[in-house]
Amino acid sequence: MSKPLTVSIGPHIKSPRTTKKIMWAVTIALIPAGAAGVFIFGLDALRVILVSIFAAVATEAIILKMRKKDVAAIWDGSAILTGLLLAYNLPPGVPLWLPVAGSIFAIAIGKQVFGGLGHNIFNPALAGRAFLMVSWPIYMTTWRQPRWAVDAVSGATPLAIIKNSEFVGMANASLWDLFIGNRGGCIGEVCVVALLAGAIYLLVKGYITWHIPFAYVATVALTSWAFNGTAGVFTGDALFFVLAGGLALGAFFMATDYVTSPLNSKGRIIFGVGCGVLTFIIRKFAGYPEGVCYSILIMNAFVPLIDRHTYPKWFGWIKK
Fold this sequence. Notes:
Helices cover 57% and strands 0% of the residues. By secondary structure, the protein is mainly α.
């Protein structure tokens, strides 16, 4: 007598690319940007990174223990990645209790309150950053310049200078400075070349696809060129607005989050365009000079709707 068939829920396609491998691959891809941040801003940046990661992992372990889940799940890399991304979104000179508070919020409220990894609606690291921005805006907008600058203690970012009309044009920073990280900003966002190195690694390995980053960056470039110039329409410096903020970090490493981004290519392009439009609107019309964080969080809320209307129809489906 043959054995009965066992019917189980999907997915039925197995892959060697596990959640753990993906999380650690993204973490590895972010190392160049972190190393560049420490080189640019000094050991204070390293302390913020380490404290943020430790607080995220500790919070994850405590909540898993309270939920009677396997505490060993902290080594799947997701909590470490959340703490790392949160630290990359912080100025290097913040007091160390700030990344602790942000990591606790990111893990407890941004992730575990929804049921843990795979169930969260919003990107946890960005949720933690938004919480810190609302709660302690002075700390979150006090920027440190590169350690070799004449006044390395504080100063505005290029986007903030443009926003406040302190300098019209390149905001005292060349495109090359913006590319290599010779400017003020958050720890992990300033060195675009290091971020691109990690992004290329993820693209080549197939851990992320081009759809969201390309749509996101292209939309910001196009809208900034068309409507963010000082001499009329189509006079904006598109490359400046692509390099000056945290767009590279957001487009390649946070908007592409598997859990909080659309499932298929068409949906990902819509998601990326939406993030780009919102980033431009916030930068252009809102009081805050940067819009990457809030644009991704807003679009995270629309992902279920995007998936519903872009999901491919099953074979044999006939429109009524």
